[in-house]
From TrEMBL:
Membrane-traversing stretches: 12-35, 47-64, 71-91, 97-118, 139-164, 170-191, 212-240, 246-264, 276-292, 298-323, 344-362, 368-389
Signal peptide: none
A molecular function (GO) term: transmembrane transporter activity
Keywords associated with the record: Membrane, Transmembrane, Transmembrane helix
Protein name from the UniProt record: Major Facilitator Superfamily transporter
Gene3D superfamilies: MFS general substrate transporter like domains
Cross-referenced SUPFAM superfamilies: MFS general substrate transporter
Pfam family, one: MFS_1
Top-level taxonomic group: Bacteria
Taxonomic lineage of the native organism: Bacteria, Candidatus Woeseibacteriota
């Protein structure tokens, strides 16, 4: 990473720590809610979280003009810390407060990601997007690889009884994540200052969209149709297949390690030939189809290995095309913030629609069986994204 500038390395470290903290507990929050309610309640939590995230992300068009992006990131992480403290306090009663907790959680995530995305765009080198996002993926996945295994181990070790007054493994884990996020608020420190965006909500309706930018919006819309819902469903299915938190954490760890290797490989290969993104598009489709067809430990591990290694090829190029498309708009970054909002509106609305569909769909029979059947629809989406990315790449090369 020596070729990256100081700001790039700092942003990558912040993301790595954030993913490490969320990786410790995120899949176990899903399992915790499922164990104390059902799959639809878990989907409902995600629905309110992503709805809140989208609202506050869009609101950042106003708040970033008044408050620095560094403060946004610190407040967002602090809210995340308080969220995990609430889980520690409420424990099994969490399901009684699921809607306000989800809204609160989404608030923190919304303002954090709005600021982080803006800082990434401002401070990353325009000529080395693939390298930046490739190394980001590698660092994030290295740190993320350790966290789910540690999370599962903590739950297993402290699963029953009391330890220094803290009851149950889940409560112990949630409290440790709270402490980690408090420390992360201090680590963020002082990011380089920059002007606020020159933004009006009218820009969302009056600014002209290029062919390339319309492709970007469709690409992220397709991602939104499966990424959030898939993470929730696979977390539950992993739990039902492996049955032990430490094994679930181990599977997640292997996936992240392979994603880290894939991230480094994709950074190098995509700089030479952009069409390597098809490795990720086809790999994810294949992994999803195999897991949908084989709901057992073998199918699970094939899914983890194939999606883990190939996924970064798609994600790295997707993020690079997004920022290249913004670069293609010949204007100061302050006048382009509406593009970030458009992208996240496209992504967020489709995430909400997919979760609403899944919530309604699961009401018509056995929730787990219906969730397994839903997986068979998903492989077409990474392939469709690949087709759009091919068109985006061709458009970029012609410029």
């Amino acid at each position: 990473m020596s070729s990256l500038n100081r700001q790039e390395r700092h942003l990558i470290t912040i993301q790595g720590l954030d993913y490490f903290a969320s990786g410790l507990a995120s899949i176990f929050v899903t399992i915790f809610l499922f164990a104390h309610s059902d799959l639809r309640t878990t989907i409902l939590f995600q629905l309110w979280t992503y709805g809140s995230l989208l609202f506050f992300f869009v609101l950042s068009g106003y708040t970033l003009r008044k408050v620095s992006s560094a403060t946004h990131m610190k407040v967002g992480v602090a809210v995340g810390a308080i969220f995990y403290f609430f889980l520690f306090v409420f424990q099994e009663k969490t399901v009684q407060y699921i809607v306000p907790l989800a809204i609160f959680h989404g608030f923190g995530a919304g303002i954090y990601w709005a600021a982080l995305n803006l800082n990434q765009y401002i401070f990353s080198n325009q000529t080395k997007r693939e390298q930046y996002f490739g190394y980001t993926g590698a660092v994030v996945n290295i740190l993320s690889a350790m966290s789910p295994f540690l999370g599962g181990l903590i739950i297993t070790i402290f699963g029953t009884g009391l330890y220094y007054g803290v009851g149950t493994g889940y409560a112990t884990l949630f409290f440790l994540v709270f402490l980690l996020l408090v420390g992360m608020v201090l680590f963020i420190g002082k990011l380089p200052g920059h002007e606020g965006p020159s933004f009006s909500y009218k820009h969302l309706f009056t600014k002209e969209r290029s062919v390339l930018w319309r492709l970007v919006l469709w690409e992220h819309a397709l991602i939104g149709l499966y990424d959030a819902a898939l993470g929730t469903v696979t977390g539950i299915l992993f739990y039902l297949i492996l049955k032990q938190e430490v094994l679930i954490g181990s599977a997640q760890a292997v996936g992240f390690i392979l994603s880290s290797i894939g991230g480094v490989a994709s950074a190098k290969l995509l700089e030479k030939q952009h069409r390597y993104f098809w490795v990720g598009s086809v790999g994810l489709a294949l992994a999803l189809w195999i897991f949908a067809s084989m709901q057992n430990p073998i199918g699970l591990w094939i899914f983890v290995v194939v999606s883990g290694f190939t996924g970064p090829f798609l994600n790295t190029w997707l993020a690079s095309v997004w920022f290249h498309s913004m670069d293609a708009v010949r204007d100061h970054w302050r006048n382009k913030y509406h593009l970030m909002l458009e992208r996240d509106i496209s992504l967020g609305v489709c995430r909400i629609l997919s979760l609403v569909f899944l919530y309604v769909y699961l009401a018509h029979g056995d929730q787990v069986i219906l969730a397994k059947q839903w997986l068979f629809v998903l492989p077409v989406l990474p392939l469709a994204i690949g087709v759009l990315l091919q068109k985006s790449g061709d458009t970029i090369r012609r410029r």
